[in-house]
Input
Amino acid sequence: MKIENTNNTQTIEASQRQNNKIIQKPAPETEKNKTTDSVDLSIEAASKSLKSLPISNAERVAELKSAIENGSYKIDNEKLANNIIASEKELSNTG
Output
């Protein structure tokens, strides 16, 4: 098998120049339509967001607040423990 030495350097160089142009040239639509997203994770932003939401059961909230302030609010420890256990079981089933 005979391998001839052909002078393809001009073809190779032209191809490389063309590839460089393609790589260096950003798509015009990409630059024009560039958008940025932002998220504010501050406590102030969260507080403002919560304050703007309506209280779904204002009467119940007022009752609980009053009971806590005057010391008459009692915690059912057994009910609380059962709810914690149920919540943990539910979380372990979803993970």
About this structure: Helices lie at 9-24, 28-32, 43-52, 58-70, 77-94. The mean pLDDT is 77.
